[in-house]
Design brief:
Mean pLDDT of chain A: 91
Radius of gyration of chain A: 22 Å
CATH topology of chain B: MetI-like fold
Radius of gyration of chain B: 21 Å
Number of helices of chain A: 13
Number of domains of chain A: 2
Structural class of chain A: mainly alpha
Number of strands of chain A: 0
CATH superfamily of the largest domain in chain A: MetI-like
CATH class of the largest domain in chain A: Mainly Alpha
CATH topology of the largest domain in chain A: MetI-like fold
Number of strands of chain B: 0
Helix content of chain A: over 70%
Largest sheet of chain B: none
Number of helices of chain B: 12
Shape of chain A: globular
Order of helices and strands of chain A: HHHHHHHHHHHHH
Oligomer: heterodimer
């Protein structure tokens, strides 16, 4: 019994170490042991700073929008009955199962020169594709599910008795939401926001197609990693990667502290 | 809702734009078929590998106790938190030409497998873990007191209970692997017929101005995504019906 336990423990921990931990630790070690000064100068490159700005703008727009959408959507799916509910439910989950490349390509077809809106947009001089709006749209698309997915089970679990009580006592639906519903789902919302932020920061496939990757203009941080790597500017590629990895580790810490109690052993 | 539905409609429309025969020629082009076969095969392998290793990991996290267990538990979510392109670069550094452990897998199908293992790692662990926590230990004790061996207890008592979790985790992992691009783009070298996956194929078709060819493969991936969601929904319904009965 004990030997079996040890073998399983060894397999699980060894697997995680080989696939997740060792590679990441090695990259940190290598970068700081060998060329930390060139990494710092690479991070001060104006195009790199601009790439981080583009990423942050996309995050700053996508996260609040998807938070509001996620909460509204979860409330509609759990508390209301309406025709087409199953379809709405499926579409909220779709970005989880769909390739980001397909997402980017769909936006490309919709807003491109030959797309459905292409002609109208061209006639009115509005640039969406290969500009900031497309990056934001792609980021919103891929991060749609996270808040809703976290809030839906929590709403189901708490039930609607408190909300009904609040209505009987004369509260409006707006007051009930702010005073009763929101306080009981707030940790689920915050956890969803953390997941959404991580997904938005790391988005690559969809943005790679719709942004055009124009240096200093529409390049995001993740696209910049690839660009620097392909131009053999390894200090830059590793520098940006480490910045993003540090953010990821921060996100992990947040996730661990916020995860609902029943999900941890 | 429109942000999701409208672009999908545009994609489906584009793929049918030049008729069914054109769609068929595009989807059966040699390079597309090679990319699709590779994607589906390696994704299935990675999902299955993580079904086994993920179940073991979940079991260790719930039933075992050792120092640093909460750290191990936190590390599981790393693939969700780390940008995929960074994951690809990190794996390339460790398992590439300058590997500190002497494993040079870059630009091969092994590299693709590694990258897909990385991105799909959390799914099974996170679907099996909560079920194992809820699982009533009395059943296992009863089986043991009736003379069942450890393997019989696992196969007859534990496995049937966690199977829906494993299945839905594997299905989501498979979908994730089929669509992955960020983690594979640097480490596989994207060599057509050898390491080029479906999503990279779509990307290259767009770059070389063949949107209809890209759309055909994209619609196929979209169909797989829908099937996966239907499958997961079905598994979830089966599992809860079992609970109610």
């Amino acid at each position: 019994m004990n030997a079996r336990k040890l073998v399983l423990r060894f397999v699980a921990v060894g697997y995680l170490a080989a696939i997740l931990v060792a590679p990441l630790v090695f990259v940190f070690y290598r970068t700081f042991a060998h060329d930390s000064s060139s990494v710092w100068s690479a991070l001060r490159d104006p195009d790199t700073i601009h790439a981080f700005k583009v990423t942050l703008i996309a995050v700053a727009i996508a996260v609040p929008l998807n938070t509001i959408f996620g909460v509204v959507c979860a409330l509609a799916i759990v508390r209301r009955r309406f025709p087409g509910k199953g379809i709405v439910n499926a579409f909220v989950d779709l970005p989880l199962a769909l390739s980001p490349v397909v997402v980017g390509f769909s936006l490309y077809l919709l807003y491109g020169r030959l797309g459905w809106f292409g002609h109208w947009l061209l006639a009115h001089g509005i640039q969406i594709l290969f500009a900031l709006p497309a990056i934001v749209l792609a980021t919103i698309f891929v991060s749609v599910p996270f808040v809703a997915r976290e809030v839906i089970p929590t709403l189901r679990e708490i039930g609607d008795e408190q909300e009904q009580a609040s209505y009987t006592l004369g509260a409006s639906s707006w007051q009930t939401f702010w005073r009763v519903t929101l306080p009981s789902i707030r940790w689920a919302v915050i956890y969803g926001v953390v997941l959404t932020t991580a997904r938005c920061l790391g988005e690559y496939g969809a943005v790679a197609i719709v942004s055009g990757s124009i240096q200093g203009k529409t390049e995001t941080a993740t696209l910049r990693v690839q660009e620097e790597y392909e131009n053999l500017n390894f200090a830059g590629a590793y520098g940006i990667s480490l910045m993003l990895a540090l953010i990821a580790i921060f996100v992990l810490v947040l996730m661990t502290t916020l995860r609902p109690k029943e999900a941890t052993a | 809702m429109l942000i999701v539905a409208l672009p999908i409609a545009a994609l489906v429309w584009q793929s049918k734009h030049d008729g069914w025969s054109r769609f068929w020629t595009d989807i059966t082009s040699q390079e597309a078929v090679a990319a699709l076969k590779l994607t589906l095969a390696v994704s299935a392998l990675a999902a299955l590998a993580n079904a086994v290793l993920g179940t073991i990991t979940a079991w260790v996290l719930v039933r075992d106790d050792f120092r640093g267990k909460s750290l191990v538990n936190a590390v599981i979510d790393l693939p969700f938190a780390l940008p995929t392109i960074v994951a690809g670069l990190v794996l390339l550094t460790f398992y590439g030409p300058n590997s500190p452990v002497g494993i040079h897998a870059a630009f091969t199908r092994y590299a693709l497998f590694l990258a897909l293992l990385f991105v799909t790692l959390p799914f099974v662990v996170r679907t099996v873990q909560p079920v194992l926590i809820e699982l009533d230990r009395d059943m296992e004790e009863a089986a043991r007191s009736l003379g069942a061996g450890e393997f019989a207890v696992f196969r007859r008592i534990v496995l049937p209970n966690i199977l829906p979790g494993i299945l839905s985790g594997v299905t989501m992992a498979f979908a994730r692997a089929v669509g992955e691009i960020g983690a594979v783009v640097l480490i596989t070298g994207n060599i057509p017929y050898k390491t080029e996956v479906a999503s990279v194929y779509i990307f290259n078709q767009i770059e070389s101005n063949n949107p209809t060819g890209a759309a055909a493969v994209a619609v196929l991936l979209l169909t797989i995504s829908f099937l996966v969601l239907l499958g997961v929904g079905g598994i979830r319904r089966l599992a809860t019906r079992h609970e109610r009965a």
